[in-house]
Amino acid sequence: MKLQKFFAWIAVAIGVIYFFVPLIGTLEFSLRMRRDVYSFDAYRSVFSDLGFLTAFGFSMLMALLTIIFGMLLVVPTAYWVRLRLPQIRPFVEFVTLMPLVIPAIVIVFGYLRLYNSSSILPLTGYNQTTNLLLVCSYIVLSLPYMYRSVDTAMRTIDVGTLTEAAESLGAKWTTIMFKCIFPNVMSGVLSGAFITLAIVMGEFTMASLLNRPAFGPYMQLIGANKAYEPSALAIIALAVTWLSMGLLQLVSRFSKSAPIKA
After folding, report:
1. Cβ-based burial of 145 (10 A; exposed 0-12, middle 13-18, buried ≥19)
2. Are 141 and 199 in contact (CB under 8 A)?
3. How deeply is 249 buried, as exposed, middle or buried, from its count of CB atoms within 10 A (0-12, 13-18, 19+)?
4. pLDDT at res. 254
5. What is the distance between the alpha carbons of residues 116 and 107, in angstroms, rounded to a whole number?
6. Cβ(46)–Cβ(236) under 8 Å?
7. Distance between CA atoms of residues 214 and 216, nearest Å
8. What is the 3 state secondary structure string of 33-52?
9. Rounded mean pLDDT of 163-188?
10. N or C: which end of the chain has fewer CB within 10 A?
């Protein structure tokens, strides 16, 4: 038994070293912009760059729009499948898993083929419509995580009873959805939202090929032309991801102790 614990701790130690040593090295390198002195010059250089503020703000806006429209798509779909169409549940789950199977570069090349400036629907011909196409792309990428988060939260409530009770009081479909269903699956929605935020902030392929000023292409551009700033950007991106995961854990913890609304 002691030998098993010993090997278990060895495995944990190897995992910690494998994960944290590169991060520590990246952090240490990002502080060496000034010769022989640790400083935050690389971070000051990044935060003072207008391109960083533009790219970060653009990606945050895209993440917000992706979360809102993804939520409006996924929650009614999961609700309707669970309440009225349980027979198509395997098909819906299969469709939501497709973004994990099809590479992002394949999806974006399909978009460029279908929505180029010479097509019937030339979405790539204008900045605003290209942004809309990028949001749709991000919704597709986040669909497996958002759908499963919402579906898992929906399993914890009695959808049929809530719907019947609301209908008996004269509630319309919109009232049922936004006042009965959404509050009870908010933990799942927020879980999917934080994962979506992490995906959007780190995504490169779609934003690059659609020629959008997102955070992922900006990181690649800086990495190709500067030395210390890319390490600082990597730490910043990691901090955003960890913040999202920390908020996810916090929401999950509070949702377990929160009473179910009737």
Report:
1. buried
2. yes
3. exposed
4. 63
5. 14
6. yes
7. 6
8. CCCCCCCCHHHHHHHCCHHH
9. 87
10. N
Alpha helices in 84-185 (DSSP H): 89-101, 104-114, 127-155, 159-168, 173-176, 182-184
* Percent of the chain with pLDDT strictly greater than 70: 95
30-51 average pLDDT score = 88
Residue 77 CB neighbour total at 10 angstroms: 18
Which residues are CB-neighbours of 53 under 8 A, at least 6 positions away?
Answer: 47
- For residue 143, the one-letter residue type is L
- Looking at every residue in the chain, the average pLDDT score rounds to 87
- Cα separation, 193 vs 200, in Å, equals 10
Mean pLDDT value of segment 108-123: 86
CA torsion, ordered 78, 240, 105, 112, to nearest 10 deg: 80
* CA angle (240 as vertex; 134, 103 as ends), nearest 5: 40
What three-state secondary structure class fits 211? Answer: coil
Query: Which residues lie closer than 8 Å to 252 by C-beta, 6 or more apart?
Result: 187, 191
